[in-house]
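Bit of a strange request maybe. I'm writing a small parser for structure token strings and I need a real example to test against, not something I typed by hand. Could someone generate the tokens for this chain?
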Amino acid sequence: MTARPPATARPSASTGPAVTDGPAMSAGPAAISGPAASTGPAVTDGPAASTGPAVTDGPAASAAPAASTAPTAPTAPTAPTAPTAPTATAEPAASVPTDSAGVGSTFAGLGSADHRVVDRRSQAGLRARAQHAARTKAGAAVDPRFAHGPLAVVDADQDGRAVAYCVGGLVLDVPATSLPALVHWTLTEAALGAPRLNPHGRDADPLLVLTPAACERYGLPTRLSQEERLAGRIPDDHTAVRQLQRADWQLTRRGLGPWARIYRPAQGGRRQCVQLCVPSWDALDARVWHGAADLPPAELARLLGTYAQRVTTPCGSTAVTGLELMTALHPPTRASEPGADGRRHSEHNPGSLGTQPVDCAPCEAPDGHPLLADLPRFHQRGPAEMLLEEAYDWARPLTDAECLRPYVVGIDVNLAFGAAANGAVVGLGAPVHVRKPAFDPKLPGSWLVDLSHVDLSRVRVGKEWTRLEAELLPSPFTPKGERPDGPAWYATPTVAYAVELGYDVTPLEAWVRPDNGRYLDAWYKRLRDAYVTTMADLGVTGDLPPEEFLAAMDGCKQRDEQMAIVLAAIKATVKGGIGKLRERPRGGGWKPGRPWPALARPTWRPDIRATVISRARTNMHRKILALAAATDRYPVAILSDCAVYAADGRTPLHVLPYTEDGRTVPGSFRLGVSPGMVKHEGTQTTLWAEGVREEHGDDLNLARYIKDGRVTAVDGGE
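Reply from user aminoacidic:
Good idea to test on real output. This should exercise your parser:
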């Protein structure tokens, strides 16, 4: 039998599992065991694997996978052991020519036509697999249930033969001839999925990404009609949906759409669920994933596999995935200690958000929330009625001295919302209302307090009182940078920053959360590691001095376009995950005052979102003050995590002073790759800045267009 051409995908260097959910399937101990996953065919690394092993699906198979002795993720005490799937048996193999490295360039003796495994590797893939083999020999744990990675991209050739491209350049022949059979094969023989991120969580469901050819192979449309796009699914009477129903498979309420879950109710603690992704149905948002949907199957498997291993298996938009990652790292339930009868039960997992949603405080509720149903129809709430913690969107005219400088330079904070989430103490339970409370900076909540007396012309920077030009600075208390003129609702970090600046605060009332914790720390660390690792793939590491860092950043995204897409997806996961904590209603005939689906989630927490954004804004302001106090340099525009300064040169080094030993102003901006540090966003001339402001008005935010200088649309939001 002739082998197919080698795949060009190369494996990523890091591993990591993912968690998704489905209706009627709890994240508690009863559902944390993985599906009836098989160990799959044995696959070896290195030159010795030049001949692909043959695989049969009969019970007589006897060769156990090489990784079967590796430790597996812990399971719930009541979960039964997953059955072992058919294992590989050897068949006579033809001689295989090798290259100078001793690695087979063609494959023969691939075994059964039902289950053929082809290890297709490029030179880059060979190096990566050699590194993987070295890590394995050094003691890295490999879970044999998920030997082929978290996902596969399923494609079909002109003859209708289906193949699955897996992470690491591995390609599996798919014997399934229908969609129900494909789901069954995935759960029983494909060895796809990922181990849980938390001992109390559950293993990740396998993800199948269907190419247009695979859609045709399994009776699905390659594109959705306009009506189907608006509905977000194909009709429930479609042939493929009926096939699934006849085979006793179920779909979630969102049906069979761009992202779909196909499942059966968990039995005996064993979860049976497969996630589908259909890129040709616009599953991969082009604003985040760019041209990923058009990549060849092997390259798409590499890209999505890298994201899945470093972040989590995608289960929807990056915003949805970011939210699911929070739950995966802090499952709502855990198995209790054995009772008198020796049995365990599901109980609340400390540090999580639990299984039930909690009501927000009235001031934290967005417009249209059921808590506000009694307000007059056209009532506009002001700062004293609602919590308004949003990112900066502030700009001012350049001074005469700044106009004499030839350039405006933008600096951008890396993963600003992620850095703000790190160490944030957030509420875990319901809020408690308090009248005339004493402010406690360690107690998360919302505070009604008057901060109009805070004067930025005289503030405490570090431990010293400092005089500054207040008219050149934004207020740290409002998104538009305007000084407050009376009592308003603020999250704890904003009020704490007023105290840090040297001013007393006297709250009138508060909604506080005594049950609290650092819920987002593990989430931040996971995404930080993914971000830093991907930046290293692009040639930017944390040990570079400022000049070399700027040089490495220049054009880094062109070095590996696929890793650049992974980087964009990681950043969108951070930002979208925080935004999803206050998801608003989206169509469906919703009316103000009525609940919408997101309110039923324990992760619908506008107070947590407010805390993170408050920290991000005050972190930015703190660094701005430190730079102004030390250098008398003030920003001319700020948009979220980007600040623009007038400068005498084109790089951030003309804004941020560095000493000969590589130090900059303590407490201010630092160039570097880590979250919270800054990079170069863009540079334009001062003539450009004055020209666009003259054309579009003084309200134009230069930070929005500093990257490429093109003013494409003037709007009021990021």
